[in-house]
């Protein structure tokens, strides 16, 4: 099946991984009440209702982290991703490993 388009499977896979992690991060922040519920709105992702932040600075920070992750994913130099919640002393109080 020729479509005339070259599909970069690596790029597609990285896009899917980053989209999943973006939803996971927003969900963790919402479910763990780490930010006020008022900065989240419900959206449909993966045929499910999820809470996504509408706070510009938080969203910029998340996108910055995901941008860095994309770079590392392209180098294939990543063993795992850990999403950590830190206390005021920067000690991890909860960790999530999506895979």
Strand order of the largest sheet: 1-2
Terminal CA distance reads: 33 Å
Any low-confidence stretches, pLDDT <50, length ≥5?
Answer: none
Structural class designation? alpha+beta
Strand content: 15-25%
* Residue-averaged pLDDT: 91
The succession of helices and strands, N to C, reads HEEHEE
Provide the helix percentage. Answer: 40-55%
**What is the subunit arrangement here?**
single chain
| Number of E-type strands | 4
Morphology call: globular
Q: How many helices does DSSP assign?
A: 2
State Rg.
16 Å
Q: In summary, what is this structure?
A:
The protein is an alpha+beta fold and 99 residues long. The chain has 2 helices and 4 strands.
What topology emerges from the helices and strands here?
Elements: H1 9-31, E1 40-45, E2 48-53, H2 56-75, E3 83-86, E4 92-96
Antiparallel strand pairs: 1-2, 3-4
Outline the structure in words.
It contains two helices and four strands. The radius of gyration is 16 Å and the shape is globular. A hairpin with a 2-residue loop joins strand 1 and strand 2. Helix 1 (9-31) runs antiparallel to helix 2 (56-75). The chain is of the alpha+beta class.
Notable traits:
single chain, alpha+beta, two-stranded antiparallel sheet, 2 helices, about 45% helix, about 20% strand, globular
